[in-house]
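#lab-general

N.A. 3:47 PM
ok so I finally got the sequence cleaned up, no stray characters, all 203 residues accounted for. can someone with queue access submit it? mine expired

B.Y. 3:52 PM
send it over

N.A. 3:53 PM
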Amino acid sequence: MGRLFMRDMRGHVTPRAYLDNQFTYTRDNHRLTVLASSMVGSTYYAACERVEANGDAQVFAVVCLTKHNPRSTDGHVFGYKDLTEHMGPRESECPASILDALTDTDSEYAMAWRARCRANLVRRKLERAKPTPKPGQTIIFDEPMRFGDGSYRARFEVVANPKGKTPLFRDPESRTICRIPAFRKRSYRIVHPAIVPKDAANG
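B.Y. 4:20 PM
back already:
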């Protein structure tokens, strides 16, 4: 099933606001309410409470893949595809505040999805805790990387990036400057540049 596209968001300024409204409604046999929501990139995550007519209630996760382009040439400015956690969505970057609001489930797909989300939260926390490489330092990756010339390299000098905050890396042998996408996902250690004592330098 593909995305549902539309020419406007019915007065809502953001995709999140539109989807919050879309998943908050009342029917004859139940009502649905968005308790918490968040946009992570172009993916919408929400904790939705469904209350049945008899009073039974559950809180489950809704995941929407969105595309928002106000300048779309065909006039379809917004589209989305909605999923629930019971479908086992591939997208699993759900914030902890939403996961914490969910009630227990016996769905294997939902439990596996929640576990992936929790694991990603731990991974991102560990990545943020890693030391940030600074220009002049040396970074050594635990696993060497294979380059186009067939060689493997693990040790690089950190170089300032004039076009952004993400550092560049220089091979100390060839002096070639390169980028290493998503380098924080790799295991590495930082070696501070050697400090030469003033007396030794003058001698």
